[in-house]
Structure formats: structure tokens, C-alpha cells
Write a structure and sequence with these properties.
Layout lengths: L2 H4 L3 H14 L12 H8 L3 H13 L3 E4 L3 E4 L5 E3 L6 H7 L4 E12 L2 H7 L6 E11 L2 E10 L17 H8 L4 E9 L3 H7 L7 E10 L2 E11 L4 E3 L8
Parallel strand pairs: 3-10
Antiparallel strand pairs: 1-2, 4-5, 5-6, 6-9, 7-8, 8-9
Keywords: DNA-binding, Transcription, Transcription regulation
InterPro entries: Bact_HTH_transcr_reg (IPR050679), Tscrpt_reg_HTH_GntR (IPR000524), UTRA (IPR011663)
Protein name: UTRA domain-containing protein
Length: about 240
């Protein structure tokens, strides 16, 4: 214990010990760390102190506790950019997880009001529509609903989106040159909570995204993800003040 940790509460010392092992790479993501019973004697603190430190680190997304199994170093959350568009399969893979998905719907469907307004098309007009549930290591990460202007992205409804994402297909076949997106938070209804495997009290992030080609809206997407499994981040240059 150095002069800094000597002045810290014991639970904070435990947290610093755990974080040091994570930062130096000795406990990489997915590592099962020593149990509360094992770590307490090693650090000379009580099991209650270890439990508090583990609970706070789990709340902060650093650790992941699995009942009856142990405590693990959490994998970084998949993230979307604020001013960029990324392939969710690549984002999930970059965090060390295996991407998979379930295609919930792939058909010509009537436009709901929100999508119709975004695409400047009549409500109820039939357009290509996909609904997909993305997973990371088998856990639901994002529910994606996407509507396309008719004639945009040839062969969209004939694709096998379990083998590649809608994003990847649209990059190959579309000509988007601009995008607009907004992010809000919601509490899921019963159906969405079941789909994402979260309680109805779990906040979820909603990204509403419209892409354009030469000023004309071509796609509208509604992306919903549990807030504790996903991250929105970005970095941009600023003009001199």
C-alpha cells in the first residue's frame, strides 16, 4: 500500500487493485477474476469490502457478475459514432464478441407515420422493410428497423442478412452522401423488453437515422439498444474560437 492508497477507503483500494490488473493487461476482457473469498485475504480486507468494490465496478460496466459462476472483466460495449455510421457487426467483433442476428421481418410493408415523414412518402405506402435483432455473444445488442425508398438498393429483400448486415449491403449498392440522426432515451414496452431481454425499467437508447442521396431521403432507420450494452461516442475537429 503506497501513500496514495493509504489515504483511500478500503473499497477504493480494492477497485484500484482491480483496475491496475485490467490496465496492465494481466486481466483482459472476459477474464474470470479471483473470487471475493480469495481476494479478501490477499488484500487484507473483508469480504464485505470486496463485495462493495465489485458491485461498484459492475455498476460502472468494468466487471460482469454471473450468478453461481463468478465475476469477469467486462468486454467493452459496441459503440456508434455521433457523426459517423458504422457496421454493427464490425463494432461487435471489435469488442471481442461474436456477431449474429435474427431476421424478424424482410418484406414490402406499409410505412408507419414516423418513417413516412422521414422519407417524405405517403403513410401506408408499401416499401422495402427489414427488422433485425443483432446479438453479441448471443445477447441482444440492438433491434434494427429499416425502411427504404422504393427502387433504392437493388435486391434488398432477396438478401440473407444473417450472413452480412443491411449496412454492408447498402454500402455496396447505395449512394448515400449525407445522413441525419437523433438520439433519445425510452423505457421499452412489453414486446420490446422481451425482444431485448431487459426489464421494462431498463432505459434504452433510440437512434433515428435518415440517409440522403443528392438531398432526397432514401432510408430511415430506427435502432434501439439497451443503454447498458451500447455506447454512443464521437470525436470531431473544432473550428478555432
Amino acid at each position: 500500500m503506497n501513500q496514495w492508497t493509504a489515504a483511500m477507503p478500503l473499497y477504493a483500494v480494492v477497485k484500484a487493485h482491480v483496475m491496475a490488473h485490467i490496465r496492465d493487461g494481466s486481466w483482459p476482457p472476459g477474464t474470470r477474476i479471483p473470487s471475493e473469498n480469495a481476494l479478501g485475504p490477499e488484500l487484507g480486507v473483508s469480504r464485505i469490502t470486496i463485495n462493495r468494490a465489485f458491485a461498484e465496478l459492475a455498476r460502472d460496466g468494468v466487471l460482469h457478475k454471473v450468478a453461481g459462476v463468478g465475476t469477469f472483466v467486462a468486454r467493452p460495449k459496441p459503440r456508434f459514432g455521433l457523426v459517423t455510421i458504422e457496421d454493427i457487426a464490425e463494432e461487435i467483433a471489435a469488442r471481442g464478441m461474436a456477431w449474429s442476428c435474427q431476421v424478424l421481418k424482410l418484406a414490402n410493408d406499409p410505412l408507419p407515420a414516423e418513417a413516412a415523414a422521414a422519407l417524405s412518402l405517403p403513410r401506408g405506402q408499401a416499401v422495402p422493410h427489414s427488422a433485425i435483432l443483432h446479438h453479441g455473444d448471443g445477447a441482444p445488442i440492438q433491434q434494427e428497423s429499416r425502411w427504404l425508398r422504393p427502387g433504392y438498393s437493388a435486391g434488398y429483400l432477396e438478401q440473407d442478412f444473417t450472413q452480412g448486415t443491411t449496412f454492408a449491403h447498402l454500402v455496396r449498392t447505395g449512394q448515400a452522401d449525407e445522413m441525419e440522426q437523433a438520439i433519445t432515451a425510452i423505457l421499452p414496452d412489453a414486446a420490446l423488453a422481451r425482444l431485448l431481454d431487459v426489464p421494462r425499467t431498463q432505459p434504452c437508447l433510440v437512434i433515428r437515422r435518415t440517409t440522403f442521396t443528392q438531398g432526397v431521403a432514401m432510408t430511415f432507420s430506427r435502432l434501439v439498444q439497451p443503454a447498458d450494452r451500447f455506447e454512443i461516442a464521437g470525436r470531431a475537429a473544432l473550428a478555432p474560437l
